Amino acid sequence: xxxxxxxxxxxxxxxxxxxxxxxxxxxxxxxxxxxxxxxxxxxxxxxxxxxxxxxxxxxxxxxxxxxxxxxxxxxxxxxxxxxxxxxxxxxxxxxxxxxxxxxxxxxxxxxxxxxxxxxxxxxxxxxxxxxxxxxxxxxxxxxxxxxxxxxxxxxxxxxxxxxxxxxxxxxxxxxxxxxxxxxxxxxxxxxxxxxxxxxxxxxxxxxxxxxxxxxxxxxxxxxxxxxxxxxxxxxxxxxxxxxxxxxxxxxxxxxxxxxxxxxxxxxxxxxxxxxxxxxxxxxxxxxxxxxxxxxxxx
Amino acid sequence: xxxxxxxxxxxxxxxxxxxxxxxxxxxxxxxxxxxxxxxxxxxxxxxxxxxxxxxxxxxxxxxxxxxxxxxxxxxxxxxxxxxxxxxxxxxxxxxxxxxxxxxxxxxxxxxxxxxxxxxxxxxxxxxxxxxxxxxxxxxxxxxxxxxxxxxxxxxxxx
Amino acid sequence: xxxxxxxxxxxxxxxxxxxxxxxxxxxxxxxxxxxxxxxxxxxxxxxxxxxxxxxxxxxxxxxxxxxxxxxxxxxxxxxxxxxxxxxxxxxxxxxxxxxxxxxxxxxxxxxxxxxxxxxxxxxxxxxxxxxxxxxxxxxxxxxxxxxxxxxxxxxxxxxxxxxxxxxxxxxxxxxxxxxxxxxxxxxxxxxxxxxxxxxxxxxxxxxxxxxxxxxxxxxxxxxxxxxxxxxxxxxxxxxxxxxxxxxxxxxxxxxxxxxxxxxxxxxxxxxxxxxxxxxxxxxxxxxxxxxxxxxxxxxxxxxxxxxxxxxxxxxxxxxxxxxxxxxxxxxxxxxxxxxxxxxxxxxxxxxxxxxxxxxxxxxxxxxxxxxxxxxxxxxxxxxxxxxxxxxxxxxxxxxxxxxxxxxxxxxxxxxxxxxxxxxxxxxxxxxxxxxxxxxxxxxxxxxxxxxxxxxxxxxxxxxxxxxxxxxxxxxxxxxxxxxxxxxxxxxxxxxxxxxxxxxxxxxxxxxxxxxxxxxxxxxxxxxxxxxxxxxxxxxxxxxxxxxxxxxxxxxxxxxxxxxxxxxxxxxxxxxxxxxxxxxxxxxxxxxxxxxxxxxxxxxxxxxxxxxxxxxxxxxxxxxxxxxxxxxxxxxxxxxxxxxxxxxxxxxxxxxxxxxxxxxxxxxxxxxxxxxxxxxxxxxxxxxxxxxxxxxxxxxxxxxxxxxxxxxxxxxxxxxxxxxxxxxxxxxxxxxxxxxxxxxxxxxxxxxxxxxxxxx
Lengths: 298, 158, 759
Fold this sequence. Notes:
The complex is a heterotrimer of chains A (298), B (158) and C (759).
Chain A: E1 2-5, H1 9-17, E2 21-23, H2 27-31, E3 43-46, E4 56-59, E5 62-66, H3 71-74, H4 78-83, H5 85-93, H6 97-102, H7 105-111, H8 119-124, E6 128-133, E7 136-141, H9 142-145, E8 146-148, E9 151-152, E10 159-166, E11 172-178, E12 191-198, E13 204-212, E14 219-220, H10 224-228, H11 233-247, H12 258-280, H13 289-293
Parallel strand pairs in A: 1-3, 2-3
Antiparallel strand pairs in A: 4-5, 5-10, 6-7, 6-10, 8-9, 11-12, 12-13, 13-14
Helix pairs in contact in A: 11-12
Chain B: E1 6-13, E2 16-23, H1 28-33, E3 54-57, E4 60-63, E5 76-78, H2 91-99, H3 108-121, H4 127-133, H5 145-156
Parallel strand pairs in B: 1-5
Antiparallel strand pairs in B: 1-2, 3-4, 3-5
Chain C: H1 15-20, E1 35-41, E2 47-53, H2 55-58, E3 63-67, E4 90-91, E5 97-103, H3 106-115, E6 117-122, H4 129-132, E7 158-166, H5 169-174, E8 178-186, E9 198-204, E10 207-212, H6 217-228, E11 235-238, H7 255-265, E12 269-272, H8 275-280, E13 289-297, E14 303-315, H9 324-333, E15 341-349, H10 363-380, H11 385-392, H12 411-420, E16 432-443, E17 450-454, E18 460-464, H13 473-485, E19 492-496, H14 513-540, E20 547-550, E21 553-556, E22 559-565, H15 566-574, E23 579-583, E24 597-599, E25 608-622, E26 627-638, H16 645-664, E27 695-699, H17 723-735, E28 741-742, H18 746-758
Parallel strand pairs in C: 1-12, 8-28, 10-11, 14-15, 18-19, 26-27
Antiparallel strand pairs in C: 1-5, 2-4, 2-6, 3-5, 7-15, 7-24, 8-13, 9-10, 9-12, 13-14, 16-25, 17-18, 17-23, 20-21, 21-22, 25-26
């Protein structure tokens, strides 16, 4: 058993190559070992002090978010809040303030929970994950990364080092909304993210919608853009509600039945489209949308 | 008898360095309560769901039940025992007492740690910011009304 | 006489310990050589043990003791004596203790648990209340008739039964213009104190000291004595600070297991529960119910008759639940005027975790059902639900359901003030509504004792059997003593929560501490007051009858300047006849129920010091998802005169918040094989501070003679009765019919709306 605090990304990668697992905040990893649910990996390499991974760079091609940027930072970072708002909405809803303080974007992505909050926003924003190993680097689309609950296509020696999100077109907006039974400390029963770009006439030019906790992974609503194009936001929201309910493949469990999830994911998708369109039109809606406009009777 | 493989680490807790040998799987909460002997930090759920174990890590609230002791090396840990100043109770502690924000007291240390961090980062929070800032700390006794009042009162400097 | 002037700030004496982290709870106490205890649980809801072999477990390095039922006396305990310390032959719920281990550390204890060989022959699992009482149902306790004598009415899977009848129900229903029948179902829920329980036991010679996070130290002691065959003078229970109970830490739990382990191991042994254990193991769970109510009423709203059948999920063992049927009967009838009643309540054995007293046992669920039903009644005759209650609820001098005629009570004031406090009738948004409900709860007079002494410097010590679980007894008891002696509450130190130091008290249960121990302390302090007056009379050359104790001194009435400081009198007394007082105030009597006939009577028909409440709740509904948010709560309580306002309002706020949780998000989900599916805070959702609404509070301070000190009645449980009911009535206003299942989760609200769509 060993615990190493990496002093460089290369050191971390070398450790991964010899079988160590990475730990950043540890919020999923440590809780996951409770009640014998899983064992802590015998060898851990801490990556939470690597400056190289804890930064946000924005440029004309978009934004690069280091893997260990925390949710607390994402939810207030001006470039995220103004340009990639759905991600800020999601980060602000993750767990509790303490979980947001140490939980990282890279950790959330690589934990690959179908109920993760940041997944759907990243998907509609067209994010690409940068994986690196001692053998080199590669960029992976999110739809190729998540292969099942808790499963990714990354190999054990690959480290998520950053998330790239392309720059946003003019007159675009995004939002993430989640069904909450309480106003805090929630895990997604269902959730939805939407990104839209508006045409000059107030109709939707194009967009994307992705869904949380209604399938083994975060899923995108295929054809969402086509079904929204040319519609006013209200009509688009209605169309997307139906499309989301149709593509959802939820399970029934103690958090909600299959039929309830199928219905409410449509509601969340419609609200996400509505909020995204309003933001695209220049309306200031605070982060997170849930609390700003009263999703779930907030 | 188990012989876990331990590693020596140094933890800075409330401004003092402690050298302890810990097993990699030990959480910070257990090491604070056992090896370091500070029992003010409580275990309520061991699952990051109740907040009784809240400590400050470099000034930010963290559930010490779900944080490995080894992760805390080189960072500054503040527990409830570190909140009181040399000349007595912290303003928050006084407000909790005077407003009646304490009943059974088991959530109180964690609640005060979250509130302390909130006020350190934002001395004049709105009521909604206080609610969100303390939302990771469950209290079963008070219905939160007097806790909220205590934090509002501290923030307004009364 | 004001007990505590409003300008005076009295900090709870245990508060500084709690805000600084210096206060010790059981988990904070370690003894040299202390071992770790762990339990092996059944993990199966109903099975015969065909093999149990702990020999390998005893050989695990670091293990000092492994115990099963074979290692302790064969004693059955409980309100129905149906339980043994460890499973005997059969396990009846998943959290039943099969074996216990004491080892050098948790890892060694876990290895020993793994090394216990236990084999089961599964038995049919009983989970459905109606199936359980049907002919031919498998029995949870095949041998129940052999468990020894009991006063409880029982048969088959019916663990206890009560019926109440008065008047002629058939005639009353025949006279009605409307007969409304409702059926409601409630899930089980949990007390969920934030501190998981802990027990630490240490033997010295033939005496054991047990530190336990119990609400009822004397009951815990008696349980140890009963199950381990020990006299009371060899068992001492000490409760350090206690991290909340809400009933969950009432009763006798694991003190005997840990004491037995410590004796076998010859070492101190400590048991600390995980949150999972706190959910699945203790015999304290708020029972699920099925409630069917039929009420007849006239067009003018007069109630003509009520018939009800209630089934309670008793769980696998009876704990203290045998009085629940009688209690549930009263709550299904409510604080109303009805002359013709017929109620039958059965507490039914199942293979679920046992039920036991959780804050106002049976009341929130039965009140939720009754008050939802009451709004249906009001709606049927087109009367506003508040007016309907004002018309039908009992008032001073009127006769209640069990024939009891009430002395001065404040229920009508509660209704008036609760609705006034929320601006009932205001214009609301389309997705908002205000629901109103009334509740009631009895007081429980009982024996209790205390000593008070004043030492040579004039400072006092109260030694009391009372238990503090957070509710503020540590404030109110010194306030009461100080008021008798003209001293300040801060002048007293409390020695409490130690069964060998103090006289008996029932503990933090049934909201009884101030009612009973308060009277004892007043009596003890009054004895000292007599001594002080005698001493002062001698010094001031006056009659003791003319001496007044006030402001820390004794003076002749009318001449406050003549005052002698109590400290000086105490110094004199310390040289001879000391200032010692003892009290065990005679408990008030229970009023009798007049003309009600009752099978399985547990003395719950005539209520001593009944407390009344009315809660009004404003909600907002997200119609597309069924999510309900609580915007505002207005409460009014008749708990008699309020002695400690900050403590009383803290009870109301906490009780309301617990009620909101129970209304919306707190319900135990069981699998078909009887296992809990959400034994963790992630999916058993307590309300957070982000959810907490503003709560306004009115106390109808009706002076209640012959009950608690200074005209007081209890307060701790009453605020947990009516909140869920009020929320239900608000939801019904928005969706047109009650959600028939508690908690009224968002999916259940939405499903109820869908059914309306179909109809």
